[in-house]
Amino acid sequence: MPGKRAALHLERVFSSEECQLISFGYIPQAMEDHWFIYLEDGWLYLHRSWTGFCIYQVRLEAIGESHKIAEAWVNRDREQYVNKRDSYDRTLLSYLIDRVLLGRETAFPGDALLRESRRKWWQLWNRY
Predict the structure, then answer these.
(1) Full-model pTM
(2) CA–CA distances in Å: residue 23 to residues 16, 62, 78, 107
(3) Interacting residues of 125 by C-beta distance below 8 A, sequence separation 6+
(4) Other Cβ atoms within 10 Å of 94 Cβ, number
(5) Which among 28, 29, 37, 96 could bridge 49 via Cys, Cβ 3.0 to 4.6 Å?
(6) Which is nearest to 96 in space by CA: 31, 12, 5, 30?
């Protein structure tokens, strides 16, 4: 993770079963697999598979049988990662954990964010 980074405020708690799945990480198998994810010393690292750039870091902290996200960081080096919206990064990070690591059927966040942007534009347009 480069020095140019930002804290993401993401509150999630994972059961011991979910933590076991998260600990397996994800190794890309094909060109379509865009992420390389691994857990090391309590930190979850999410790298872009093609460039190797670390985009997200998440520290997991034990709370009884479960684990919570204690801190999360996003890469803000514009030469490595161009997005600068924390709201999108929180949504994408949650999606990656849910879909890639936990195997849940989850819609890609870009679809929901696009629908929300269109809805807001339509509301503004109809005011005039």
Answers:
(1) 0.82
(2) 10, 13, 29, 23
(3) none
(4) 17
(5) 28
(6) 12
